[in-house]
Amino acid sequence: MAMIDWLANHLVFLATPTFAISWFVLAAFSAVFIVFDVIGANRGLNAPLKVVWPIIVIFFSVVGLAMYLATSRPPGIGRVHGQEPKMERLTEFSRPRWRKVVASATHCVGGDGLGIMTAMVYARLNNFSFWSEFWFEYLVGYLFGWFVFQVWAMRMHDNGWLMALWKGGRAEFFSMITVMVGMGLVMRFVTPATVGAEPLPDTYAFWTFGALGLMVGFAFTYPMNWWLVAIGWKHGQGHESMRDNR
């Protein structure tokens, strides 16, 4: 509990209007930059990640932008001309496994996070208990991640629909467990200790602590995604075996 008290004392600033507004304004500018970047200079990026990175950045703000620049945007990609050369440059840039794993974890947290935050809004407005909210968020996040993002990614690796459903659901199951462990720890201990009762969607704390929970979830799911990439259950990024890269 001493650790929770320490965190609570040092995270009060997250609930302030100044921080929250600054964080999400920077997030909006960062997301717009990425949208234009993947349409233009970095269009060789894997298609699902073109959607996922702006979602991540909406919550992770400038931290997410830094992650994108370090892991999914090859230096000088704007000076590379042609779709295939851009894809080849991204594939070469993505050879270090840590970059592939960041992309894999981002793909997970982006899809899951969209579902989790949607479910959290509904749960808070309807006075769910902690565990009811937790499992509701797990279910909605899992379904978002599985059907919207994982199946899409698996289909791009020459999998038929049934195989894509199976492989996507398998990868999402393990990823989602670890995301929700991180998210749940923030929801159960850190947020109440810092701002009292679980905040509602019309408060700054709801969104900033939701973002914090997703970032902690990312940290928890990174080792899991390392293992999933290592055994070939997820692919990260790059075009070594893609059939459709536009």
TrEMBL record:
* Keyword Membrane in record: yes
- Keyword tags: Membrane, Transmembrane, Transmembrane helix
UniProt key word Chloroplast: no
A Pfam family for this UniProt protein?
DUF4396
Q: Where is the DUF4396 domain?
A: 97-234
Highest taxon of the lineage: Bacteria
**Bilayer-crossing regions:** 12-39, 51-70, 135-153, 173-191, 211-233
What is the annotated signal peptide range for this record? none
Q: What is this protein called?
A: DUF4396 domain-containing protein
